[in-house]
From TrEMBL:
The keyword Lyase applies. It is an enzyme of class 4 (lyase). Pathway: Porphyrin-containing compound metabolism; protoporphyrin-IX biosynthesis; coproporphyrinogen-III from 5-aminolevulinate: step 4/4. Residues 66-75, 185-201 form the Uroporphyrinogen decarboxylase (URO-D) domain. Catalyzes the decarboxylation of four acetate groups of uroporphyrinogen-III to yield coproporphyrinogen-III. The keyword Lyase applies. This is Uroporphyrinogen decarboxylase. It is found in: Plastid, Chloroplast. Transmembrane segments: none annotated. One of its GO terms (cellular component) is chloroplast. The lineage of its organism: Eukaryota, Viridiplantae, Streptophyta, Embryophyta, Tracheophyta. It comes from Eragrostis curvula. It comes from the Eukaryota. It catalyses: uroporphyrinogen III + 4 H(+) = coproporphyrinogen III + 4 CO2.
Amino acid sequence: MMSPAATATAAAATFRSAAPASSSYPSTRRRRSRLPAISASLSSSSSDEPLLVRAARGEDGLPRPPAWMMRQAGRYMAEYQALAKRHPSFRERSEKTDFIVEITLQPWRAFAPDGVILFSDILTPLPAIGVPFDISDSKGPVIQTPVRSEDQVKELIPIDLDMLQFVGESLKILRNEIDGKAALLGFVGAPWTIATYVVEGGMTNTYTNIKSMCYTAPNVLRGLLSHLAQAISDYIIYQVNSGAQCIQIFDSWGGQLPPHVWEQWSKPYIKQIVSRIKKECPHVPLVLYINGNGGLLERMKDTGVDVIGLDWTVDMADGRRRLGNGISVQGNVDPAFLFSPLPVLTDEIHRVVKSAGPKGHILNLGHGVLQKTPEEAVAHFFDVTRSLRYDSLFQGSVAEELQPVA
């Protein structure tokens, strides 16, 4: 049996030999000159693992926080816009290996973040469990037949990973292309968030159908969430086996629930996923992000994940106090700061990093990159982060050993 590294190398070679001459697939020679310098600066580390993975585990002695951005690949980049103009179907761009690899690598070539996250969508695995969907330019995701009955839940199938081979192949190629210079991240949607689309039939501002099911058809909803938890667990393991080194779980719409309702209808299914991944992939850190999570931090920690992603409405220092030092944090610069003068952005990065402390922090935004974000600001974000050093930021100070607020 081939090792994961050999498998990735073989996959990359096969992909290149099969790619047409006009393919936009990138060569590693196109990477910017800053990449070798990053590699050299980290090569003195006692660990061969990427900085981001080590920070996610809360390791001591890291030189600086690693950084990446949610939605760092996508529509704010001119390079992506040009590709999307030639290939207007989002499903095509996110479900064909050559496009996935190219789009994923675009921000890495341009900005050299410490984390490279797969270009995909949280709904990508739905057809593999028997839920087809379309994407409308005006409405976003559309599920023609929402799942709202017991019979419909029974018709769902165990996830067919053969239908997701483009994800596995992309991760293998990306792991080879990145070559240890950054962490490769995969991601999934949490059961509740995926269920909102499946039940509502697409995007919603009110969530009335799924929220009412909590009380009008609780057994149906439990069956759906349980099925999704199993499928998502399988999908995470598949991503890990294909090369992902860290997984982010997006419970994007969990923040639309009152905390006690989230405790009942989202948290148990996330815990189910985390428990299984910790048994089968104990080396892979798990990040949990919820948009609007200020009222949920302590409950999020109880899921067992390694990292809590804070949105920008949570004060980083307060979040640290509430969570304690026993768990890593991610975030949480307001994406709007990327539209501010660069010195203002620099100050905000410093403020967030100092508030998070010199251990267990992954610098990120508090939400995804906004559509018209200047690429210059994104480059500045990562340049500033690379220049940071904990020993100078916290010179003469003693890190406070925080305990969770009771």
